[in-house]
Amino acid sequence: MQRIYFDHAATTPVDPEVIKAMEPYFYEKFGNASSPYAFGREASRALEDSRQILANFIGAKPEEIIFNSGATEANNHAIFGVAQAQQHKGGHLIVSSIEHHSVLEPVSFLERQGYEVTYVPVDDKGMVDPQDVQNAITDKTILIVLIHASNEVGTIQPVAQIGQIAKKRNITFLVDACQTTGHIPVNVDTLGADLLSLSSHKFYGPKGVGALYIRQGTKVSPFLLGGDQERNRRASTQNVAGAVGLAKAIELCQKGMEEESRVQMALRDKLMEEIPKRISGVRINGHLKQRLPNNTHFSFEGVEGEALLMSLDMANVAASMGSACTSGAMEASHVLRAMGLSDELAFGSLRITMGRWSSEKQVEYFLERLPSIVSGLRI
Predict the structure, then answer these.
(1) What counts of helices (H) and strands (E) characterise the chain?
(2) Which amino acids are annotated catalytic?
(3) pLDDT digit string (tens) for 157-206?
(4) Does CATH number 1.20.120.80 belong to domain 16-252?
(5) Fewest beta carbons within 10 Å, which of 72, 182, 217, 224?
(6) What is the CATH number of domain 4-12+257-378?
């Protein structure tokens, strides 16, 4: 059996068609998009075409798209940018307790600078209650942040409802769509997003490129200074090849999303049905229905998650406990803790996230090997 990759929430392989689309921009069409001569104009056209493709996909205007290095930068830009541009309105932020660290860390930084932060809880399925967000709003609230779907347990949040709440109170709303873009429909108007972050490498595009959507009229300060690129929002020579790759990846996702979701949901549901049948002491984490089509997340009683991952790796299966950004941290997942899991169950967790080339044969192999691995670790 060849190595099996079941960690698509961490990153995805680049689709060969994406590589093909990017290739000319490394050696033939390599111009700086800010240069006035033909090489530069060629690069600029490719950049703006890519911006239009992404804008169409999320229901935005092209001038509202800012290309950057990825969702971590986008979240930092959005949070610090709003804090700076809107500090005259107040200094209160609302975030969920299960946000990615690219949200929690900048928010924590602002908290140390004197900003007030309300961390909204989740239920045992990892779901935010919109009423809790409503109750947390004060006359000083300037930003609400919510992840579209949990990067760990896959629960899809009631983003549209919270977007309506934010709109009624004239509060800027940031949606972290890193796990959802390219996998389920993402539309900024439907979600009510004023800001939206995404990363190319989560949907079969290259690493190191992403985007921040900024709704026209939203007050956000620039993140990088030094040039007038990206409409003075983000100085730096643009990554044209990366933007082309992101756009091609989006086109491929748009074309195949419905079928890919159907296939991945079938594999996901098979794992969620079969693993509890074959192994005792298993908990399925996250909402059973309102979850990403490719995400399954389990906790195993009496099993240490790191040992489980190592054993799976020896069996040629790559999986994770949760976020790749914190895989080296020797502490229980803040997401699972927020859902009420004990540290023992949190440390015994396993996230399986499938992708474009995952197959039923791979799932069958995994199901055959997992029971004996878990049994051996429980001795």
Answers:
(1) 14, 12
(2) 325
(3) 999 999 999 999 999 999 999 999 999 999 999 999 999 999 999 999 99
(4) no
(5) 217
(6) 3.90.1150.10
